[in-house]
Amino acid sequence: MLIIRLARHALAIIVAATLSACVTLPPNSPRSPQDPWESWNRGVYKFNDAIDRGIAKPVARAYVRVVPKPVRTGISNFFANLNTPTVMINDALQGKFMAAANDLGRFLLNSTVGIGGLLDPATSAGLDRNDEDFGQTLGHWGVHAGPFIELPLLGPSDLRDVPGLVVDTYTNPRQYVRNTDVKYGLIPLNLVERRASLLPLDSTLKNVYDPYVFIRDAYLARRAFLVSDGKITEEPLTDPEPDSKDTSSVPNPAPPMARPPAPDNSGSDFPPSDRSAPQVPAPDNSGSDFPPSDRSAPQVPAPDNTESDFPPSDRSAPQVPVPAT
Asked: At what angle do helices 38-51 and 2-19 cross, to 10 degrees?
C-alpha cells in the first residue's frame, strides 16, 4: 500500500509539472509536420531531461559501477525474456506465425534451461530474438503513426504507440504477479537497466545542436524501420537504354562543335578539297601553251623558241646570245 500511495503522489507531481510544460520555440527553427505540439513536447522534454540529469543518470552510473557485468547481463536477459510473450502475441496478430513459434520456443527454453530467463540458451540454439509490440501491429495494418508526443518520464512516443503501451502492459506476465511488492518493485529495476543501456549514447547527445530534435527524429526513424521490418522502399529507376553506358555519376562533357557540311562540287571544275589539309586545287592547263607546273617546287616554264632567231638560253648559267652571221 505504501508503494501505491507513493505512486499516486508521484503521478500528481508529474501531472502538475506537465500542465505548464509549454515553452517558447527557438527562433528561426524549422517546424516538423510530424510535431504539431512541439511547444508542449519541448516543455515535457525539459522536465524529463531534468529528472534524467538529477536522478536517472546518476543512479544508472552507480548501477553500472557497482553491479558486475555478468549480473547486469542476467538482469537484462530476465526482462527481455519477460517481454517475450508480448512479442509472440504481436507476431501472431501480424500474421507472422513462424516468428511466433520461434518466440514461443525462446520463452520456454529460456524460462526452463535458462533459469527463469537469466541465461539465454535460445540464442545459442538458433532461435533469434524478435522485437514486436502493439504499436508495430497497428502500423502493420495501416494505422498512421500520427503526431509525435513526448510522454512524462517515459520519453518519446507518438499517437499510435501510446495506446500500444497500455495493451503491451497487459500482455506482460509481470502484470499478473500477485505479490504487489514484487510486481511494482520490478518497474524501477527495469527502468534503471534500460537507462544503463543508454549511457553510451550520452556522448553523442552532447555533440548535437538540438538534442530534442535529434531524439525526436531518431525515434520516428527507428519506429518506421521496425514497422516495415527493415524494408526501405525506394522508387525503382528505369533505364531507357539498357545497353548504353551509365554516365549518371559523370558530368556531361561539352558537346562537340558542329562541322560545316562539305560544299557540293558536282558542278565545279575543281576536285573536292581535303578538309584535313586544305590545298589550292591545280588549274586545268589542257588548253594552255605551258606545261603543268610542279606545285611543290614552283618554276618558270621555258618559252617556246622555235620561231625565235636566238637559240634557247641556259637558265642555269646566263650567257649573251651570239647573233647569226
From this structure: 140
Is residue 274 included in any domain, yes or no?
no
Within its chain, how far is the Cα of 87 from the centroid? 28
Nearest Cα to Cα of residue 89 among 118, 130, 122: 130
For residue 22, count CB atoms less than 10 angstroms from its CB and return exposed for 0-12, middle for 13-18, buried for 19 or more. Answer: middle
Residue 60: all three cell numbers together: 544508472
The answer to whether residue 307 sits within a structural domain is no
Residue 211 burial (10 A CB sphere; 0-12, 13-18, 19+): middle
3-state secondary structure of 248: coil
Picking from 291, 126, 155, the residue whose alpha carbon sits closest to that of residue 218 is 155
pLDDT band for position 244 (50/70/90)? very low
Q: Which amino acid is at 257?
A: M
pLDDT tens, position by position, 123-153: 999 999 999 999 999 999 999 999 999 999 9
The dihedral formed by the CA atoms of 228, 87, 130 and 212, expressed in degrees to the nearest 10: 60
How confident is the model over 176-233, as pLDDT tens digits? 999 999 999 999 999 999 999 999 999 999 899 999 999 999 999 999 999 998 876 5
For 253, the 3-state DSSP assignment is coil
Question: Which DSSP string corresponds to 122-166?
Answer: HHHTT-PPP---HHHHHHHTT----SEEEETTTEEEETTHHHHHH
Backbone angles phi, psi at 157, to 5 degrees: -160, -170
Query: Does residue 285 have a pLDDT over 70?
Result: no
Residue 149, φ and ψ in degrees, nearest 5: -145, 135
Does residue 179 form part of some domain? yes
DSSP 17-42: HHHT---PPPTTPPPPTT-TTHHHHH
Classify residue 19: in a domain, yes or no: no
The number of domains in the chain is 1
**What is the domain range of residue 114?**
2-6+35-227
- Give ∠ CA 33-37-41 in degrees, rounded to 5: 120
